[in-house]
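User: hey, got a sec? need Ferric uptake regulation protein folded
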Amino acid sequence: MPKYAEEILAAVTELQQHPTAEQVFLEMKREHPSIALGTVYKHLNGLAEEGLLLRITEQGSPDRYDRTERHDHLICSRCGKIADVHLPDIQSRIEHALGREILSYDLKIRYICPDCRKQEENNAEGGTQ
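Assistant: Yep! Here you go:
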């Protein structure tokens, strides 16, 4: 594995928050002050192409990176926060419905996260006083 690639892979796994390339870059700078942002992007893209990382793409937001363990994502429509969700046996249900085997799928569920929901409730309460 090329220089830094293993550490970048470990950083994505350790950050556990679907980091952007910039967040991985800041994490890597702690141990490697001379590392360039372009180097981090190059390795993240390479790791994603090799199937060692999952790239989460959302229109209007920077790409985020995640481990490849099978799981799906909840994405807040307000703040963009991404949370993992494990929904067992979805692939077999899809295959049964289609009548054929599938190689993979990518499920992104959009919702309003608890923090944004609470903020909306607080704003509504403040507006009616």
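Quick note: The mean pLDDT is 91. Let me know if you need anything else on Ferric uptake regulation protein.
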